Each structure stands twice: as structure tokens, then as C-alpha cells.
NB-ARC domain-containing protein (Trifolium subterraneum), 1080 residues
Amino acid sequence: MKELVAGAFLSSFFQVIFEKLASSNFTDYFHRSKLDDLVEELESTLDSINQVLDDAEIKQYQFPNVKKWLCDVKHAMYEADQLLDEIATDAPLKKLKAESQPSTSNNIVNFIPTLTNPFKSRIKELIKSLHSLVEQKDDLQLKNKTYAGNAVGFNSKPSGIEETTCLVDASGIYGRDGDKEEMIKTLLSSENGSSNQTPIISIVGLGGMGKTTFAKLVYNDNKIVEHFQLKAWVYVSESFDVVGLTKEIFKTFNSSAEGESNLNLLQLRLQQTLTGKKYLLVLDDIWNGNEESWEQLLLPFNHGSSGSKIIVTTRDKEITYVLKSTKLFHLQQLNKSDCWSLFVTHAFDGKNLDGYPHLEQIGMKIVDKCGGLPLGVKTLGQLLRRKFSEHEWMKILETDMWRLSDEDNNINPVLRLSYHNLPSNRKRCFGYCSIFPKGYGFDKGGLIKFWMAEGLLKCSVDDKSDEQLGNEIFSDLESISFFQKSVGYYPFVMHDLVNDLAKSVSGEFCMQIEGYRVEGIPERTRHIRLFVENLNCGDKLLESICECKGLRSLIVERYAATLISNNVQRGLFSRLTCLRMLSFRCHDLSKLVDEIGNLKLLRYLDLSDTKIKSLPDTICMLYNLQTLLLTWCDKLTELPSNFSKLINLQHLEIPHIKKMPKNIGKLNKLQSLTYFIVEEQNGSVLKELEKLNHLHGRINITGLGNVIDPADAAMANLKDKKYLEELLMKFYDKIEEMNDSIVERHVSVLEALQPNSNLKKLTIVNYNGNSFPNWLRGCDLPNLVSLNLVNCRLCSHLPPLGQFPLLKELCISTCPKLKVSIDKGDSMIELYLSNCGRILVNELPTSLKKFALLENRYVKFCEDQNLVNCTILEVLQFDLKGIVKRPSLDLHCYNSLDYLSITGWDSSSLPFSLHLFINLQHLRLFDCPQMESFPRGGLPSKLWKLGISNCPKLIGSREEWGLFQLNSLNWLIINDHKFENVESFPEENLLPPTLEFLEIRNCSKLRIMNNKGFLHLNSLYCLYIYNCPSLESLPEEGLLHLNSLHTLSIKNCPIIREKYKKEGGELWHTIRHIPYVRIE
């Protein structure tokens, strides 16, 4: 194996190629093909290029010719990888074809060369192109690098980065006042760390977010200067050397350490200096997370006076855990106002802004592009300083700088630095993320599967699985803020500037195409994400995509439900035979054509949420397929009979099919299998799970009522599936007739399905046994976090919850005989009780955050029981009907409450003030016929969603609710069949202008939607009107003025349906401007 240069983007690409060439399969193939000399020449040529990669990566930002050379190398490596993958697939594919054709000889099972080797000429062509690149590298004067770097850390750093000092100009800092006050409060506190360790406060954030500046601001504050007897500021960066750093700290604390190199003596002297003194130490720009080194470095610091503190700044959140930080400040982007102030300070250099009104609008647009990153705002402000020409400012607004081009990357040198410090395989994985649009949400598991499909997780010297390496890389990228937590449906997102960096890294090899833009798709493109409404044969766009013959990823993103016709598929599958990844997720696809079998290198296929009814047999020829996603393909009932030939399949997500494919147990590489069904007359199929011991995550096993012999259940071998975390076991889809033999069989089957002790979540549904298995009643599931029991009608006893020490979530639904006792000592966070009959609540756990009590007729609360002790509740759903003894609803101290739903309250008002719930965002009230008004003080100011159902008196007083003043209200639901004596809704100025979603349901007497009530709803996005049979008209003028309205959905409103139908409706013209109209 050739030694690699660490760090350069392409190094891991080369390592993958070298590993493939060195594998026994390839060496055997080349030897038999008498290609040994060619392979030696190929390796030698590749190594010659590999040795200059690090030098080329640095020089590409100064010399365009070097950048072009690197792009040519990248293209050549893609070609090499393609060739070797085809060679590796050739023999197994021939074997598969031979097995499917019994008359054909089966002796083609190894890498046996034919008389005319189909790959020899291509190897020669590859070597020829690589020789050309070797010659060019000499012309470009690229130098070999001989040092070895850290292949897994973040410790290599380009030169040219200056050390920081503690000095700062506080007048140019904006948006950190709140953080500063909190930090100073923390520093001035007398709090000490655990085990006498000096408290460590960590400042974490994206590169360029102002961590160092913020630390300086605090360090130089007068209160801090007066509070600490000793202060020291030390710049750390990547050069983490315990002796050198100890000497630097010692020196900074006004002590001389010249000539001293003995670590023991240095630390003793430092300890003497600090003993009895209250000190503050700032360690700026930490990259190294080696726990042993930090423990050694920090030894002398435990002898200072009480109140001493250490501040560290880092981009890597993982380092804060190594340091056992007592407080974390995660700096966020600046808001628009603070960004503008910062920009004005640097751009106008003290001049009066009033003199340049023509530049203000342009400047604000420039600031918006910076995404709240102080470094970007400051850099651009400095770039425009004393340039007051509109032309100059427009050049900046419209420049390619926003793509972070290599020729002008001043906008974000720190992000570029973060990227350069990544190991090579991290760089490639990050570069692949350029396929995501800005603001695009993604999840960890999905992205890791993308990386697997592209072969980015093969560059590992350890025995780690692809998933393990992928998780490590993802964590590394998250820890330096390249990936950030999202508030949307998907948990992660990239900051816009980070996204731009990824695009600059990937260059011409990755494209995003929106609409029907066909120009500028380079033939070298390897990854395409496509946003189109339609994809038709003969379109220039389709032709242009098919010209990218080396394309490896094609993601057809959902713009609308694009029709993927059979002819379009044939065109793609016959020409894009290099595809590793293909996604038609959420599109109008009812059939997958046979030509899918042409994609012999395909590793990832996503057909989720399509109308597909069956898969062709040729899909079983996709030898390399690792991931097949078929979630929500509700019309797909079974898989091909030869499905077990997909022997490299690792992830299979399938819908609720009616039968499992034959011999699925042969797919012993499976790591995820979301669904497994035991169909009638085939209870023994459960045995197929026996050898699938690599299953991870979650599995749903249904149809267990069809298992006749408990021995078949035992052979499923669930006890050895140590990686499974979640298990759902369902016996029937519907309630079946019960007799003694069925009850006894259910008990035996469930007993035989004992899971591994590592299981964290267990759900049992429609179980007709009269007792739970011994493994649930005993102590066999010590790691259980969540227990869900649904429709277990005959079971009467649940073991004491205390024997599940980690249990956080308990859900019991429709278990009428089950006796359960809830005690204060239980450490539950979520408790859901629905339609249960024998629940005794002694005292609710104070740790409870989510509590739902629904449709329970005989739940009993002990004397003096109330909810007041559950002060950290975030979600409360309470159905008060039928409770034997109602707990007190004194909820005045619920500052954490986010969601409140109450059903069956029988008084005129609630017994608590809603406006005191300062964080309440969701409020739902059901079946409260006597409720007349909200409590005094009105609704909470942060309320986002309000739903009122079957509360006629309360709805009658709606004009007293004060909705118009609720600027945060986004969603309103009115649902009441007793909505009587009302001719129109809503009244003028009843609803706030912030409202985006309005739902009106089951209002039988409602006749008119009031035009004046809609005129000011400029944010309304969706209007739903369901089951309003008396409704005669919609607010014609009001809807015409609502440019924001996107969706109008009407159901079971017969008069409206007739008047507003698309064909022949007299009033259709008043709503046809709305993009999405659905009237049923």
C-alpha cells in the first residue's frame, strides 16, 4: 500500500484506488489476465500524482492552472474508480445471470479472463491520461510533500494565520450584550467545578462567528479586571504541545520560564504561582481533543483560589465534553439590525449615513447575503470602506464572491481554514454535501447512506463498518459547525456560507438544476439534484443530463408530483449506466421498467412515496445495491421472487407488504429492515430472521397471530440481535375471536420472542394472551427506555415499573384489565394513558415532561393529588371525563408548558390564568359545553396554534378573545357543529394579520364567510373549510386580495361545491388565481 499524503481532498480517493488494486480479487484478476506490468505502471503513475496533492491544494487558490489540473486529476480518479468497480462487478454479475439461466454453464464464477479482455484497452487509456497529468505537474512546479499528518484529527493547519491577542476595540462589537452579561455573571460567581477542578467555560461557534472577539470583550471588562488577581490570554490553535503550552501559560502569568523544558518542574512552578490566587485563564482557538493531554496540562490549575475560572474558545463542540465544561456559550448568528450596525461601522468609517441614501438599500441586501456571520459582514464592510460609488456596491452585490470562488475568497477565510484542517475523507464527504440547496434540511442516517452509495466511507485503516465511519465523520463535521441543528422537520442544515464553501469545493462535478435550465451542464458532472415540474422524452434538459455519461448521483427532487414515464426511465437507464445513487422519491411513478437492471453499479435506490405496484425481476440483478427505500409505497404488496440475490443489501425500508420474499434470511448483511410480516398459512417464515443478527435500529414484526408453532418464533433468534434498539410486535391487524387455545398460543409465542437485553423501546399490539412473558416481568430488559402496550385486553398485571431503571416513556392504551401503579419515584418523562380501566396514580413523577390522560373511565388519583409538583411539564393532554377523583389543576407555575389540551371541562371557565404560561404555543379545548370565556388576563402572548372544538358558548364569545392582538398566532381551528345563529365568520378585525392557517370544521349553521374579516389577512397561506353544509359563499373580494393564499381546500360543502366547481361553476373565476384548489 502506498503511503498517503494526509489532508488533501483527493488523498482518500487515491487511497481507495490503491486499496482496490492491492486486494486479492484484483491481483488475481490482473495476474490471470497477464496485466501485471500495466497495473505496476498504473500504481506508479498514480503515486507520482498523489505525492504532490497537498502542494497543489494550497496553490490552487493562487494559480488557476493548478486548480484546473486538480479538476483534471479528480476527473481521472472518477474514471479509474468507475473502471475498477466495473471489473469488480463483472464476475459476480455473470454468476447471477448464469444462475437465472439454468441452461448456461455456471463455471464463470471468478475473475477469469476472456480471450479478448474487455478492460485492457481502458486501462491503457487511463494510464495514458495519467501520464499527461504527471507531465503537467512538473510544468506547474508542484512539489512532493514528505511529512505525515494526522489522518483522523483536525491538527494540520495552513500557514499564514496570526496568533490572537487579548486586545479588542469594544466599540465595533454588536449583538453580544446579553451573552456578555451572562458570561460576566458566570465568571463573577463563586461556583467551583466538580472534584475541585477549576470551572471551564466554553465558547463554541462556527468559524467567523466572533468567539475570540467575544472572549476579548469579557476579558477586558472592568468588572473582570478588578475581580481576578491573575489573568492570562494564550493562543493555542493546532500546535498542542503540553510542555510548550505550559511554558507559554507560565510566561503569560508574569513569570519567567526561559530555558526550562522539564514538564514536572514547569508545572510545579506554575502551581506555586497560582496557589491561593483567584485567576482567569483564556485558551483561545483549541483544536486538539486528546483527553490525556488535557488532563496533564490542567493538573496545576486545581490549586488556585475559589472563584478561579478558565475560558476556552473552539469550533469543535466535542472538545467541550473532553474538558468537562461547566458552562457552554454557543454563539449564534447576529440579527439583521446588529449586522447592519456592524456593516455601517466598517463601510462608512464614521461618516453620516444620511448622505448616502442610494447605498442603503444595496448595503442591506449585501448584509442579508452574509447570513448573520460577523466575519462576512465585517470583511465586506472593510472592502467597501470609503467607496461611495453605487457602481462599486452593485459589483459586490452581484459578484461571484457569493459562490466563494477561489480567486476571491476574502468573505470567509476562517471557514476555508476549517475546511483545510479536515482529513481527506472528511473533505470528500463535506464536498458531496454541495448537492443540498441552501436551507435544505437533512438527517444523519440519510446522509450517511448517500456517502456509502458514493463510496466515500471505504477509506478506513480500521475494521469499522461504513456506518461507524460515517457517524464519526458526521460528528466531526457537526462539531466544527459545518452541520447545524435545525428547527425544521429534518434535524440538520448547513449555514448558507458553509453551503457556498461546499459548492466551491465540488466545483463542476456537482450541479443543482431548477426549472428547465439546460445550458452549462458540464459533461464531467457526477452529481445532479433536479427540481422540475415535468421530465419528458426529447426535452433538451433530459438530453443534456444523459450526456453526463459518468453521472453517479441523480436526485429528482419533488417540485410537484413529476410524472416519471416509462420512456423517460428507459432513456435514463440505458445511458446513465454509471449511476450509484438514484432517487425518484415522492414522484408520480407507477412502474419501474426492466432497464433498471442496466444500472449494475447502483448502490442506492429511493422509490419512497410513489405509486409503484410491483418491482421488475431485473432489479434482482443489481448486485451492488446497498440501500432500497420503499417507504409509503402503499400499492406495493410483494417483492420479486429472486429478491434474495441482492446479497449486498444493507438497508431495506418497505411498506406493509402482504408477504415476505422467499429466502430473505440469505440477506445476512442487512442492517435495517423496517417491516416483517408473517402471513396466514406461513407462520414458519419467522425463521428467516434467524441469521439476520446485524439488524440495527427499529423493526416492526406483524402477523404474529399467524405463528402456529412457538418453535418458529424461537428460531427468529431475537435474543441475539444485540444492535436492535426498537421492536414492535403486532399480533393481528384487527380484533379476532378468542378461545383458550389462541390465548395459550399467544402466550407461548411472545415468550419465545425474547429480545436482547440492549433493547431500548418495546411495543406490543393486539396481544390476546392473558399474561405478559417472563422476560418482561423479570429483569431481562435493563436498558428499556420506552414501553408501549396497545390493546392487550386480557392482561391484568404489569411488573413494577421500578425494575426498568431507565424507563422514560410509558404508553398504555386500551388495556381495560391491566393494573398499573404510578409512583413519584418513577423517573418517567412521558406518560400516556388512554382508554384504561385500572390505573392508580399514587403521585406523578416530578420528572414528567409529557402527560396525556385520554378516554379513561376508571383512572383514580390518590387523595390530595395534583399536578403542581410537575413543574417541568411541556405537554399536557387531559380528558377529565370519567376520572374517579380529579387531580387539582393548579397550573400557575408551569413556565415550561408548550402544549395544553383539555377535554371535558364542565365549568364556565378554566381554574387557572392562561396568560401566565409564558411559553405556551399550542392550546386545544374539546367538549367543554359550559365554558363561556377564557380566564382573566386572556391568552398567552406566544400562542402559535389555537383549536376550539365543541365549545359552543366559548365560540359565541369569540370577539372577547383578543385574537387580533396575538401577533404570534399562526394557526386557528374552529370545530363545532353547534355553531348556531351565526350568519358570517370571521368578524372584521377578529383574526390577527399574522394568521397563516385557518380551519373551519363542522359548523352546520354557518352561511357566509365575511369578506371584511379576510381583507387584512395578508399572511394567510391555507384555508380549510370542511363539513359546513349551509355555507353559501366565499369572501370574493377578500380572497382576491390575498396574494399569500396558496391552498384552498373544501370538503362536504354542497352549495360551495356547485358554485365554485372548475367546470361550469358560476364563481370559479373568483378563486382560480389560487395555486392549489381542492373542492370535494
